[in-house]
Structures are given as structure tokens and as C-alpha cells.
Amino acid sequence: MRLEQLRISEFKNLRDFTIGFDGNSQYAVLVGQNGTGKSNLIEGLVFLFRNLDLGEAAPFSYHLNYRRSVDNVERAVDIVAESNLQPQFFVDRHELTRTEFYTPNGDGSYKYLPRIVFGYYSGPSDRLQWY
Questions:
Q1: Nearest-5° angle of CA 55, CA 61, CA 66?
Q2: Mean pLDDT of 38-51
Q3: Please, are residues 75 and 67 in contact by the beta-carbon 8 Å criterion?
Q4: Is the pLDDT of residue 125 over 70?
């Protein structure tokens, strides 16, 4: 899965927030001063994908775009959600029902949801020191 863009209406200090991700890379690095929303963005992604995985209503309003390989074909997935409502799902610009979106893979995962979203580490590390 490759995140492409996320728009958040309001979550913590993120208001009318949009971020684009490099579609050619599987990695993203967030750099910024304290209090600018880096951790809130990651926390928002955790809530968003948690609720998607559990089939629960959206924790806040958002529009998420990502690419996912489905049956060896890369698909464009768009999820549009209003706070406290079930999201709408689009794959390659075609709207899917909840049942279609939550098609199981047979291994406990779903066809259009990523198996792994991201890794996160925050804290001091000699690997991140400037020399």
C-alpha cells in the first residue's frame, strides 16, 4: 500500500489539513518543529485505519487516497468519510458497497485494506544525531 493524500477536516490541531505523499516511495519521513502536528497526523492515521479495520464509523471527517495491489493489479482506493458516519468507498473511481469493500482475502485480511500501514518510532537515537 502507498498513501497518496490525506485530507482531514478537524482532528486535534489539524484543521483543514491536507498532506500529499510521494507515490513513488514506500517511505515517508515527517520533519517539523514541536507542536506542528506530526504525531497528531500519525495518531489520526491510526484511528482512521483502526476504525476501517473494525468496520466502525469514522472518528473524524477525512478523505484518504492510497494505492493497493489487488490480485496483482494496482488499484486506486479513495475513502471519503464524515465524522461519526460510515465511510464511502471507491476503487478506481467506482463506488463500492461496504460488502464489496470488505471482501476477505482468506487470510484474515481484506482485499482493499492494507495489511500493514506504517511503523512509527519517536524518541532519542544516536542514528538520528547530526555529526
A1: 70
A2: 90
A3: yes
A4: no
CA separation for the pair 105, 111 (Å, rounded): 6
Rounded to an integer, what distance in angstroms lies between the CA atom of residue 67 and that of residue 49?
Answer: 14
8 A C-beta contact, residue 48 and residue 62: yes
CA distance 6 to 19: 5
Residue of 35, 59, 55 whose CA lies nearest to 45: 59
Q: Where are the beta strands (DSSP E) in 12-61?
A: 14-20
3-class state of residue 76 by DSSP: strand
Q: How confident is the model at residue 119 (pLDDT cuts 50, 70, 90)?
A: low
Q: Which amino acid is at 127?
A: R
- Secondary structure (3-state) at 46: helix
